[in-house]
Amino acid sequence: MRFMNKHKKRKSTNDNRGKIPNTVNISQRPSGCTNRSRFIHFESDTVLGMRKTGLLGTHVERKSGFLVAFKLETKTDTEFSNKTIQAFETIPDKLKKSFTVDNGKEFAMHEYIKQNTGMDVYHGKEVQMKTLMDFLDNFSLKAVHLKTLLMNL
User: Fold this and answer.
1) Is 2 helix (H, G, I), strand (E, B) or coil?
2) In 3-state terms, what secondary structure has residue 143?
3) What is the per-residue pLDDT for 139?
4) Burial status of residue 45 (CB atoms within 10 A of its CB: 0-12, 13-18, 19 or more)
5) pLDDT tens digits, residue range 105-119?
6) Angle (CA) 116 80 18, round 5°
7) Which of 41, 56, 97, 142 is within CB 3.0–4.6 Å of 47 for a Cys-Cys bond?
8) Parallel, antiparallel or unpaired: strands 67-72 and 55-61
Protein backbone atom coordinates (compact mmCIF):
# COMPACT_ATOMS: atom_id res chain seq x y z
CA MET A 1 0.00 0.00 0.00
CA ARG A 2 2.92 2.33 -0.37
CA PHE A 3 1.45 3.81 -3.60
CA MET A 4 -1.91 4.53 -2.05
CA ASN A 5 -1.68 8.33 -1.87
CA LYS A 6 0.47 8.88 -4.95
CA HIS A 7 -1.02 10.92 -7.78
CA LYS A 8 -0.51 9.46 -11.23
CA LYS A 9 0.24 12.06 -13.91
CA ARG A 10 -2.05 11.84 -16.91
CA LYS A 11 -0.55 11.79 -20.35
CA SER A 12 -1.54 14.70 -22.53
CA THR A 13 -2.96 14.02 -25.97
CA ASN A 14 -1.64 17.37 -27.22
CA ASP A 15 2.07 16.65 -27.17
CA ASN A 16 3.75 19.39 -29.23
CA ARG A 17 7.36 18.56 -28.41
CA GLY A 18 9.46 18.29 -31.55
CA LYS A 19 6.77 19.59 -33.90
CA ILE A 20 7.43 22.45 -36.28
CA PRO A 21 4.83 25.22 -35.80
CA ASN A 22 2.77 26.85 -38.59
CA THR A 23 3.48 24.29 -41.29
CA VAL A 24 1.51 24.14 -44.54
CA ASN A 25 0.55 20.59 -45.49
CA ILE A 26 1.75 19.07 -48.75
CA SER A 27 -1.89 18.55 -49.82
CA GLN A 28 -2.29 22.34 -50.15
CA ARG A 29 0.42 22.82 -52.76
CA PRO A 30 -0.58 23.78 -56.34
CA SER A 31 -1.47 21.08 -58.87
CA GLY A 32 1.47 22.08 -61.09
CA CYS A 33 3.78 21.09 -58.28
CA THR A 34 2.16 17.72 -57.69
CA ASN A 35 2.05 16.54 -61.30
CA ARG A 36 5.40 18.13 -62.28
CA SER A 37 3.92 20.19 -65.12
CA ARG A 38 5.80 23.42 -64.20
CA PHE A 39 9.49 24.22 -63.80
CA ILE A 40 9.35 26.34 -60.64
CA HIS A 41 8.87 23.90 -57.75
CA PHE A 42 11.73 22.44 -55.68
CA GLU A 43 12.14 19.47 -53.33
CA SER A 44 14.55 20.15 -50.49
CA ASP A 45 16.49 17.78 -48.26
CA THR A 46 19.82 17.20 -46.58
CA VAL A 47 22.22 14.46 -47.63
CA LEU A 48 24.61 12.99 -45.09
CA GLY A 49 27.90 11.62 -46.41
CA MET A 50 29.31 8.19 -45.76
CA ARG A 51 30.33 7.64 -42.15
CA LYS A 52 28.74 11.02 -41.33
CA THR A 53 31.77 12.87 -42.70
CA GLY A 54 29.99 15.50 -44.78
CA LEU A 55 26.62 17.17 -45.08
CA LEU A 56 24.95 18.74 -48.11
CA GLY A 57 21.81 20.81 -48.44
CA THR A 58 20.04 20.04 -51.72
CA HIS A 59 17.17 21.61 -53.63
CA VAL A 60 16.10 19.71 -56.76
CA GLU A 61 13.68 21.25 -59.23
CA ARG A 62 10.89 18.68 -59.65
CA LYS A 63 10.45 18.75 -63.43
CA SER A 64 13.90 19.46 -64.89
CA GLY A 65 16.09 17.99 -62.15
CA PHE A 66 18.03 21.27 -61.81
CA LEU A 67 20.11 20.97 -58.64
CA VAL A 68 21.00 23.68 -56.14
CA ALA A 69 23.41 22.23 -53.56
CA PHE A 70 25.66 23.60 -50.84
CA LYS A 71 27.88 22.20 -48.13
CA LEU A 72 26.74 22.47 -44.52
CA GLU A 73 28.94 22.31 -41.43
CA THR A 74 26.10 21.40 -39.06
CA LYS A 75 22.51 20.24 -39.46
CA THR A 76 21.03 23.28 -37.72
CA ASP A 77 17.98 25.10 -39.01
CA THR A 78 19.78 28.48 -38.90
CA GLU A 79 22.66 27.40 -41.11
CA PHE A 80 20.39 25.58 -43.58
CA SER A 81 18.08 28.59 -43.85
CA ASN A 82 20.86 31.12 -44.37
CA LYS A 83 22.59 28.99 -47.02
CA THR A 84 19.27 28.39 -48.81
CA ILE A 85 18.53 32.11 -48.94
CA GLN A 86 22.05 32.80 -50.19
CA ALA A 87 21.79 30.09 -52.88
CA PHE A 88 18.45 31.37 -54.22
CA GLU A 89 19.44 35.06 -54.39
CA THR A 90 20.86 34.63 -57.90
CA ILE A 91 17.87 32.72 -59.30
CA PRO A 92 15.24 34.99 -60.91
CA ASP A 93 11.88 35.24 -59.13
CA LYS A 94 9.94 33.84 -62.08
CA LEU A 95 11.94 30.57 -61.81
CA LYS A 96 11.19 29.86 -58.14
CA LYS A 97 7.79 29.31 -56.56
CA SER A 98 7.85 26.68 -53.80
CA PHE A 99 9.80 24.19 -51.69
CA THR A 100 8.52 20.78 -50.60
CA VAL A 101 10.30 19.53 -47.48
CA ASP A 102 9.98 16.72 -44.96
CA ASN A 103 9.51 17.33 -41.25
CA GLY A 104 13.20 17.42 -40.33
CA LYS A 105 14.40 19.92 -37.75
CA GLU A 106 16.58 21.66 -40.34
CA PHE A 107 13.36 23.03 -41.89
CA ALA A 108 12.07 24.60 -38.65
CA MET A 109 12.81 28.14 -39.91
CA HIS A 110 10.52 27.70 -42.93
CA GLU A 111 8.77 31.03 -42.29
CA TYR A 112 12.13 32.83 -42.37
CA ILE A 113 12.97 31.13 -45.69
CA LYS A 114 9.56 32.09 -47.11
CA GLN A 115 9.96 35.69 -46.02
CA ASN A 116 13.44 36.07 -47.54
CA THR A 117 13.05 34.07 -50.76
CA GLY A 118 9.38 34.70 -51.53
CA MET A 119 8.86 30.96 -52.01
CA ASP A 120 6.10 28.95 -50.32
CA VAL A 121 7.19 26.02 -48.13
CA TYR A 122 5.10 22.84 -47.94
CA HIS A 123 5.70 20.07 -45.40
CA GLY A 124 4.90 16.40 -45.89
CA LYS A 125 4.82 13.58 -43.36
CA GLU A 126 6.29 10.80 -45.45
CA VAL A 127 7.42 12.62 -48.57
CA GLN A 128 9.49 10.60 -51.01
CA MET A 129 12.29 13.13 -51.42
CA LYS A 130 14.51 12.96 -54.49
CA THR A 131 17.98 12.68 -53.03
CA LEU A 132 21.20 13.86 -54.60
CA MET A 133 22.32 10.29 -55.29
CA ASP A 134 19.06 9.48 -57.13
CA PHE A 135 19.51 12.65 -59.15
CA LEU A 136 23.07 11.75 -60.11
CA ASP A 137 22.17 8.16 -60.98
CA ASN A 138 20.08 9.42 -63.91
CA PHE A 139 22.89 11.31 -65.63
CA SER A 140 26.07 10.70 -67.62
CA LEU A 141 29.49 9.35 -66.67
CA LYS A 142 30.54 12.81 -65.48
CA ALA A 143 27.94 12.44 -62.77
CA VAL A 144 29.52 9.14 -61.69
CA HIS A 145 32.77 10.98 -60.96
CA LEU A 146 30.89 13.65 -59.01
CA LYS A 147 28.98 10.94 -57.13
CA THR A 148 32.18 9.21 -56.00
CA LEU A 149 33.62 12.57 -55.03
CA LEU A 150 30.57 13.36 -52.89
CA MET A 151 30.55 9.92 -51.28
CA ASN A 152 34.07 10.56 -50.00
CA LEU A 153 33.15 13.83 -48.25
Assistant:
1) coil
2) helix
3) 52
4) buried
5) 899 999 999 999 999
6) 100
7) 56
8) antiparallel
End-to-end C-alpha distance for the chain, whole angstroms: 60
Average pLDDT of the chain is 80
31-38 contacts, C-beta under 8 A, 24 or more apart: 33/62, 33/97, 33/98, 33/100, 33/122, 36/62, 36/63, 37/63, 38/63, 38/97
pTM greater than the 0.85 cutoff? no
Give the DSSP letter of residue 9: P
Please check whether residue 98 is in contact with residue 118, taking contact to mean a CB–CB distance below 8 angstroms: no
Tens digits of per-residue pLDDT, 54-86?
Answer: 899 999 998 888 999 999 999 899 999 999 999
Q: Is 113 exposed, middle or buried (0-12, 13-18, 19+ CB in 10 A)?
A: buried
Buried (b) or exposed (e) across 128-142, using 16+ Cβ within 10 A? ebbbbeebbeeeeee
